[in-house]
Please model this.
Amino acid sequence: MNSTLYEALVVLVVGMFTVFVILSLVVLSGRLLLQFLNKSNFVFNKAEVKAAALRAPTDPAKRKLIEKAIQQWSDGQAQVVTVDSD
Model:
């Protein structure tokens, strides 16, 4: 094999391996960050969460109507957890 071609293949393999390692580190660090934030119940905007908690609850009739619409739309697979009054 020609030495120039051999050097080109070595550079190609080393470059691809380097990119793979760096991207793997990015994905791993992102997953670790998400796990940490989910376990610590991190809230980015605490004022917004407090304001949502102070709002009046949604009318029960409206909530039932929303639940029925979502059940029909999802063929019974979706479930309503909360209804925000915004």
